[in-house]
Each structure stands twice: as C-alpha cells, then as structure tokens.
Amino acid sequence: MGSESEWMGRPLPPLRWKTDRCFVCGLENPQGLHVVFAAEGETGCRASYTARAEHTGWPGIMHGGVAFLLMDEALARALYFQGLYGVTAKVETRFRQPVSVGEKLVIRAWTLDRRRRLVDARAEIRIDGDNGPLVAEATATMYLQEIEGNEKI
C-alpha cells in the first residue's frame, strides 16, 4: 500500500461530515431508508427498522441486499460513535432466515479489535429485539479514513 491516504494505489477522498443524503441513514434522501442509529455501550450501535414491501426480492420477503445495507451502515456507525470514520474493506455475511415484510428488526454492530487503520467488527439483525431470532450476521474489516477538515486518525 502507498501512503496512508491511498488504497490500492489510488488516492482516497476524505469522508465528509454531512451524510444527510446517505441511502440508509440520510433523512434528506427521499428514496432512503431513514434509519436512525444510536450508540450502544462503548464500542457499538443499534437501530430498528421495519421490513417494507418496496424492498422485497421474492414476494413478501425483504431483499437480502437490504439486510446487507443495514448491517454495512451499522458497522460504519459503530466506528462513528467512537469518533472514528471508515468504510468496509472486507465483509463476510451469513443470511440465516428470510425476513417477511412487516417484521420489526433490530440491527446491532460493534467493534472487536483495531490494528492501525483496520478495525475488526461484527453486525447482526434480529427480529423483535435483542433475544429474537438471528436472521443475518456479518464479520467485517473496516478501513479508517480521514474526515474532511479533521486531523489524521
């Protein structure tokens, strides 16, 4: 890898503070999911989301890509609530059961370990709360980046 502001030999643009157009969390994105995340403990976050009919793959079943989007955003938010900013570098996802339209989901993510600019993290989606059935999970490596106007990480 080149300098700390490069990835795979390409310059990295700094992330920007303003995320109101984000597809998952951006409240100003009319097509977005409008999911609101909150900090959970010192290393994690959580949010809730109800599976919607316009996000199906098979009739009546939420598209797996939407489940992945929710976990990917949660992984980034787990960093954010620790004052860190980054993107997903690598992720392995397991879908355990389908999610029906109308089911209320809890999305959680937390960081596990940090090695310089890499952070290992996990995310999960459960139905109806922390003890509900596990429907999807992800193990990820996050790559920390600078924020526009911020000092180096």
What report would you give on this structure?
With 153 residues, the chain is mainly beta. The chain is 11% helix and 37% strand. It is built from one helix and eight strands. It has one helix at 64-80, and strands spanning 6-7, 10-11, 38-40, 44-50, 86-95, 104-115, 118-127, 134-144. It has a six-stranded antiparallel β-sheet with strand order 3-4-6-7-8-5, with helices on one face. The chain has a two-stranded antiparallel sheet with strand order 1-2. The radius of gyration is 16 Å and the shape is globular.
Secondary structure: helix percent: 10-25%
DSSP, total strands: 8
Structural category is mainly beta
Task: Please tally the helical runs, counting DSSP H or I stretches of 4 or more residues.
Answer: 1
Q: pLDDT below 50 for ≥5 consecutive residues: which ranges?
A: none
Oligomerization category of the chains in this entry: single chain
Terminal Cα span: 17 Å
The helix/strand order is EEEEHEEEE
Describe the strand arrangement of the main beta sheet, using strand numbers: 3-4-6-7-8-5
Main sheet overview: 6 strands, antiparallel
Radius of gyration: 16 Å
Mean pLDDT: 88
**How much β-strand is present in the residues?**
35-45%
Shape: globular
